[in-house]
């Protein structure tokens, strides 16, 4: 958190304007007390520079590859990545201080000389982690200054509470989690004069287990009391022993230790309140409404709520029936009984006091003092139980002991009935918390990059809590999806914190260069300010924050709608079955629930949203009246489409809100595209990789996702969908039929807001929606003609629908809808293919509607992508097609046909995949097989492929990873040469561009990697990854293509080895996986060969966003020596060995090798990868426990004979499945230099 705050405040990238003002400032109403305090405590991580000029390898010169992968100096490699504790910082900069006249609670009085190390920043109190401190001396001096450590401890506590759910926290819960020690800290169990130490435990233990216990317990030492005066036994006897006299039940040493820790905690808690970081209940009303909630993980437990009700004067305790399950929405469970009791009665003290009747009616029963007493009772009981010598204490003894401990707690905290009593329940104060969350969200969204512009539970694309006034307690399915504005920020995955815990890999730390204005005011003067700063104006930053909030709403509505429809279909399937589902929410009344969080279904809400989006100065001058008029006209058309909707009210409301959002985005982007200034357009053109930090880019992706809602409805919605797609692609609201001679308009802004893959999908959907619109329009004309004939009294004979359409077309003498779409597609292909604006797969999809061979369509049209990557338009046997052929045809892959019947009946599928039974008794797969596993069994046993002339068959083994290991090879081989991983950025790259390409040190890819190669409207190549690094890429690919199989295998090994030597002291999960699979990867690289690897890598460099997916399902290899198949388990080992195959499948993660994006990509769908975070962490934890050593290099010989490695790629399809256009492109490329095919399973007649 300190690193984030320091970067947002002091890095030149996050400044705006000629005066380099901050994005968040006091004068704008932002409370920066917490941000400034944390930023002052940040000490930069010292990253060792990579060695240069030397080369260390176990390979001899004869077998060394021709590519230099970087040297390694052992002494320099052993340097430790340090996070040092810095010197005492100065006072907060005057420019960051609160203006005069502000409330004293709104600022932090930072007067203590202290430091904040990275252990507290990461939400962790591990002060003895050897990976944090740079030397043993610094580690030994940590506890020398109690004042510094006390200050850091308080900030650490605040950061921990920030990462928790909240919003309110109880003192007993916070104390038990972060301050209370453990039993192993005691010197003796029955030593009443126990004295806690001010340093780590020095108890000698023997063996590995003892050392691990001490290391784990030292993680709690940060919150331990630092000093305690010695007290003799007589003092303790007069104090604690006279009150708690049963030494057989209570460990007096442990009890006294906890009381000392309570003193430390109480002091820290009070100081955080005085600094304005925490606050308690504002009044009795807030307290009653908070403690009376019956939601899951509420502030008070059910028995504690009953005690509060009794203290408030309830005649009898509430039955447990009133405290039902929290996920139920019944009135009895959602009713706040505490607040109801507070408002129904009046205290005797208030009745006796004089006052006006109006004041008397507004009074409520006091409840804060009862809550404090209840929390103290629970706190005292937990302390007693922790100090107990027995597993069970009698109830009477527990009650008396807890009362004695509560008396001690009251002596420490003071009276709890006063106005300024000790706050037993507190929360993070909202103004500084919201500012910190905005800073947190901005940094993490910037880190995610242009490849991840959609939100889920793990990303920071979220709404701020309490961003609206809607009641979220009655919303359904909250255990599956959190609504926007809820307290779900604790689920966000923080790459910086996870990197410190070695949970995730951050391989671009050295590529990021901080532009710190605090250390060097002149560091940004040598750069062009406009090309360094991320946001051009304050208004654009405000609009970006609004679109992020809108993005969270769209993600939630789309997922909620899909879940509601899924549950409804499930309920209909189970209607006739005897099934009692306690969690069935379909019977709950949702009539009072609303998901219109922004009030967009009202004219006032739409106008408010539009004015917030148009805060940019350029849009203000245009006027909003015209835009509002156009929006209202389109919204009126929605009512007719939803009039006959049969779905639930909540489902319909989700669709309505999404459709309104699409209309607002449609008209806003249209106006912005037409009237954007040349200066702003120049900045966007120079840095296309920052589309995720452009409010126009976020709004474009919102429109792209909401168009599906328009397409799913009839009665005029297709017209809106076509207009929306026209804005996304051309920046104008128009219909294709309005174009003169199919002249495609040229747009400058819109291609900068969407990736090539998203644009290709948009073109495909545009032609399809346009066809539906034309057919729907033609159908209306037919109906109108029929009504006219009936009105005139003419009766015709009944004819078929086709004959009516044909007769109407003859009368109109115009082109059919298919002919109009074909003509429009021809114009699109000519423009898009020449500029490479969309992928080649989208070009082929558009060409299908022309109903002629692809070679004829592309004749005279040059496709740069096809030339660069080697796409073929047809097979060799298709070159002699007749020019009059009216069928579409292009290149087709080799197909292996097989017969397999599913063991699941068609009516029992229910959206699930088919399952099959294998043929081999010794198969590693136990139970049923999916279609990919069945194909692997066919290839392993030699049933496939069937080739002529016959060759050695069988022996194929490998992985169903959908190209994951191919992407892994690309990352390993090109990391230091092209990508700039680990060893810094490339020397010949411009620092000005690299400042925004590597915006944060924790991004998972350079941002320009997700900008594909294309040509703009001026026929100039856009500054994407392929264009910027073309010289380095060509040199790298040429050298890879010239390598022999054994040289490629050695290159893989050397690349992993060099990184291992560099990061052996601090390995990350990616490095551990690479080392664990280095021999298998070397085998795969040798089988693919340098030529095919070069062709594959070129596709990744050309457009990684598109070509990172679509690779064949199966990657298979086999080794031959003297005509016989080599057993890979004996030769290679690793995952091929039978003992490791099951573990290899468990730890397999096919999505881990996507750099800066996910598998779903830009297909326009949402993704909810539940459970992924837990799975990845568990697997990485298992790998981190293993000792990190490099295995021996793979030698391509077996028993003294050379080994030939072969590789085959296979895309598996079941009976009713077909190839995707991107999959066909990959098979087209792989087939040029390798063995790529399709395995098609058909069903045999039963």
Distance between the termini: 64 Å
Secondary structure: number of strands: 13
**What is the residue-averaged pLDDT?**
78
Shape: globular
- Report the β-strand fraction as a percent range: under 5%
What is the percent of helical residues? 40-55%
* pLDDT < 50 stretches: 51-143, 184-220, 227-243, 320-332, 356-361, 580-588, 906-910, 984-989, 1167-1179
Q: Quickly count the helices.
A: 49
Major sheet: size, sense and barrel closure?
Answer: 6 strands, mixed
Helix/strand class = mainly alpha
Question: Whole-number radius of gyration?
Answer: 34 Å
What is the secondary structure topology, with strand pairs?
Elements: H1 2-10, E1 15-16, E2 21-22, H2 33-41, H3 74-77, H4 118-121, H5 136-140, H6 146-163, E3 168-170, H7 171-178, H8 207-217, H9 233-243, H10 252-274, E4 278-279, H11 284-291, H12 302-311, H13 331-334, H14 337-344, H15 348-352, H16 357-361, H17 368-386, H18 395-413, E5 425-428, H19 430-448, H20 495-500, H21 529-532, H22 538-573, H23 603-613, H24 617-620, H25 625-642, H26 649-675, H27 678-686, H28 695-711, H29 717-730, H30 756-792, H31 801-812, H32 817-835, H33 840-847, H34 854-857, H35 864-869, E6 894-899, H36 931-941, E7 957-960, H37 964-979, H38 991-997, H39 1025-1028, H40 1030-1041, H41 1045-1062, H42 1069-1076, H43 1078-1088, H44 1090-1102, H45 1104-1107, E8 1114-1121, E9 1124-1125, H46 1128-1131, H47 1138-1146, H48 1172-1184, E10 1197-1198, E11 1201-1202, E12 1204-1213, H49 1221-1233, E13 1236-1242
Parallel strand pairs: 6-13, 12-13
Antiparallel strand pairs: 1-2, 3-5, 4-5, 7-8, 8-9, 8-12, 10-11
Helix pairs in contact: 1-2, 6-10, 7-17, 10-18, 17-18, 22-26, 22-28, 25-26, 26-28, 26-29, 28-29, 29-30, 30-32, 30-33, 32-33, 33-49, 40-44, 41-43, 44-49
């Amino acid at each position: 958190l300190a690193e984030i705050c320091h970067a947002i405040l002091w890095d030149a990238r996050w400044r705006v304007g000629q005066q380099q003002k901050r994005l968040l400032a006091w004068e704008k109403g932002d409370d920066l007390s917490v941000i400034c305090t944390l930023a002052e405590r940040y000490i930069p991580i010292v990253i060792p520079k990579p060695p240069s000029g030397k080369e260390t390898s176990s390979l001899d010169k004869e077998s060394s590859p021709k590519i230099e992968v970087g040297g390694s100096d052992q002494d320099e490699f052993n340097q430790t990545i340090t996070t040092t504790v810095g010197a005492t910082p100065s006072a907060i900069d005057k420019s960051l201080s609160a203006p005069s006249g502000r409330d004293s609670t709104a600022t932090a009085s930072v007067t203590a000389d202290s430091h904040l190390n990275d252990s507290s920043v990461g939400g962790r109190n591990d002060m003895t982690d050897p990976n944090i401190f740079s030397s043993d001396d610094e580690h030994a001096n940590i506890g020398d200054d109690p004042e510094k450590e006390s200050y850091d401890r308080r900030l650490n506590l605040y950061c921990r509470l920030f990462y928790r759910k909240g919003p309110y926290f109880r003192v007993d819960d916070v104390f038990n989690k972060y301050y209370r020690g453990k039993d192993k800290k005691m010197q003796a169990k029955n030593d009443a004069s126990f004295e806690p130490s001010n340093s780590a435990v020095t108890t000698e233990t023997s063996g590995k287990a003892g050392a691990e216990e001490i290391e784990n317990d030292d993680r709690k030492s940060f919150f331990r009391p630092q000093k305690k005066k010695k007290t003799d036994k007589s003092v303790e006897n007069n104090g604690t022993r006279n009150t708690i006299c049963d030494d057989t039940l209570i460990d007096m040493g442990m009890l006294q230790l906890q009381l000392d820790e309570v003193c430390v905690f109480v002091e820290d808690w009070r100081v955080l309140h005085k600094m304005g970081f925490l606050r308690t209940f504002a009044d009795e009303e807030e307290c009653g409404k908070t403690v009376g909630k019956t939601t899951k993980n509420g502030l008070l437990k059910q028995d504690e709520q009953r005690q509060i009700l009794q203290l408030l004067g309830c005649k009898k305790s509430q039955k447990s029936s009133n405290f039902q399950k929290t996920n139920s929405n019944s009135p009895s469970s959602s009713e706040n009984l505490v607040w109801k009791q507070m408002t129904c009665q009046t205290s005797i003290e208030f009745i006796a006091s004089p006052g006006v009747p109006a004041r008397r009616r507004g009074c409520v029963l006091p409840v804060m003092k009862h809550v404090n007493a209840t929390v103290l009772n629970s706190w005292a009981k937990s302390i007693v139980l922790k100090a107990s010598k027995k597993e069970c204490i009698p109830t009477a003894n527990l009650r008396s002991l807890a009362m004695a401990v509560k008396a001690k707690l009251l002596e420490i905290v003071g009276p709890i009935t006063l106005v300024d009593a000790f706050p037993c329940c507190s929360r993070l104060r909202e103004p500084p918390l919201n500012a910190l969350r905005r800073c947190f969200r901005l940094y993490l969204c910037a880190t995610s990059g242009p490849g991840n512009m959609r939100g889920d539970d793990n990303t920071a694309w979220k709404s701020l809590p309490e961003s609206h006034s809607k009641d979220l307690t009655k919303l359904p399915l909250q255990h599956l999806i959190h609504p926007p504005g809820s307290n779900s920020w604790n689920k966000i995955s923080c790459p910086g914190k996870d990197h410190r815990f070695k949970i995730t890999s951050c391989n671009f730390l050295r590529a990021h260069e901080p532009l710190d204005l605090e250390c060097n005011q002149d560091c940004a003067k040598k750069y062009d300010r406009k090309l360094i700063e991320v946001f051009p104006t304050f208004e654009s930053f405000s609009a970006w924050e609004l679109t992020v909030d809108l993005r969270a709403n769209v993600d939630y509505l789309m997922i909620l709608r899909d879940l509601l429809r899924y549950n409804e279909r499930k309920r209909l399937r189970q209607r006739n079955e005897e099934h009692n589902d306690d969690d069935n929410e379909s019977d709950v009344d949702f009539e009072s629930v609303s998901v219109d969080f922004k009030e967009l279904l009202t004219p006032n809400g739409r106008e408010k949203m539009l004015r917030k989006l148009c805060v940019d100065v350029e849009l203000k001058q245009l006027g909003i009246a015209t835009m509002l008029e156009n929006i209202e006209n389109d919204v009126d058309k929605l009512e007719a489409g939803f009039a006959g909707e049969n779905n639930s009210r909540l489902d319909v409301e989700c669709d309505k809100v999404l459709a309104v959002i699409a209309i607002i985005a449609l008209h806003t982007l249209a106006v912005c595209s037409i009237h954007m200034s040349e200066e702003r357009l120049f900045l966007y053109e120079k840095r296309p990789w920052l589309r995720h930090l452009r409010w126009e880019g976020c709004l474009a992706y919102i429109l792209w996702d909401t168009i599906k809602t328009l397409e799913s409805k009839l009665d005029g919605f297709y017209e809106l969908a076509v207009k929306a797609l026209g804005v996304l692609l051309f920046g104008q609201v128009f219909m294709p039929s309005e174009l003169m001679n199919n002249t495609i308009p040229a747009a400058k802004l819109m291609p900068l807001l969407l990736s090539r893959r998203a644009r290709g999908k948009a073109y495909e959907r545009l032609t399809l929606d346009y066809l539906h619109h034309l057919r729907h329009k033609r159908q209306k004309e037919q109906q109108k003609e029929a009504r006219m004939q009936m009105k005139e009294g003419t009766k015709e004979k009944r004819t078929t629908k086709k004959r009516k359409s044909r007769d109407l077309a003859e009368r109109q003498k115009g082109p059919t809808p298919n002919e109009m779409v074909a003509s429009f597609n021809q114009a699109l292909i000519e423009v898009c293919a020449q500029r490479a604006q969309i992928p080649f797969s989208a070009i082929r999809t558009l060409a299908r509607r022309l109903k002629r061979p692809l070679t004829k369509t592309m004749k005279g049209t040059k496709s740069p992508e096809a030339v660069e990557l080697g796409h073929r338009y047809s097979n060799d046997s298709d070159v002699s097609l007749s020019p009059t052929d009216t069928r579409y045809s292009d290149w087709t892959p080799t197909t292996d046909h097989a017969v397999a019947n599913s063991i699941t009946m068609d009516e029992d599928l229910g959206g699930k995949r088919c399952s099959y039974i294998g043929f081999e008794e010794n198969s590693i797969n136990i139970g049923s097989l999916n279609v990919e596993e069945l194909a692997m069994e066919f290839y392993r046993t030699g049933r496939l492929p069937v080739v002529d002339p016959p060759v050695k068959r069988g022996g194929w083994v490998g992985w169903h990873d959908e190209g994951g290991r191919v992407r892994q090879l690309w990352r390993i081989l090109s990391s230091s040469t092209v990508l700039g991983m680990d060893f810094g950025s490339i020397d010949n790259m411009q620092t000005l561009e690299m400042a925004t390409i590597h915006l944060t040190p924790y991004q998972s890819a350079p941002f320009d990697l997700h900008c594909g190669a294309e040509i703009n409207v001026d026929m100039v190549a856009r500054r994407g990854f392929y264009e910027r690094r073309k010289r380095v890429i060509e040199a790298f690919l040429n050298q890879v293509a010239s390598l022999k199989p054994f040289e490629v295998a050695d290159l893989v090994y050397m690349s992993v080895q060099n990184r291992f030597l560099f990061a052996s002291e601090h390995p990350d999960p990616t490095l551990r996986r690479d080392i664990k699979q280095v021999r298998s990867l070397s085998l795969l690289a040798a089988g693919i060969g340098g030529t095919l690897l070069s062709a594959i890598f070129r596709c990744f460099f050309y457009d990684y966003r598109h070509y990172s997916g679509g690779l064949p399902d199966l990657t298979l290899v086999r080794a031959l020596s003297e005509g016989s198949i080599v057993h890979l388990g004996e030769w290679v080992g690793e995952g091929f060995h039978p003992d490791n195959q099951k573990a290899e499948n468990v730890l397999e993660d096919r999505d881990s090798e996507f750099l800066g994006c996910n598998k779903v990509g830009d297909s326009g769908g949402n993704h909810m990868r539940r459970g992924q975070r837990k799975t990845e962490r568990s697997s990485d934890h298992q790998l981190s426990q293993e000792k990190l050593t490099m295995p021996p290099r793979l030698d391509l010989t077996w028993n003294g004979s050379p080994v030939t490695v072969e590789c085959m790629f296979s895309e598996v399809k079941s009976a009713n499945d077909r190839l995707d256009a991107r999959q066909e492109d990959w098979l087209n490329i792989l087939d040029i230099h390798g063995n790529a095919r399709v395995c098609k399973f058909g069903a045999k007649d039963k």
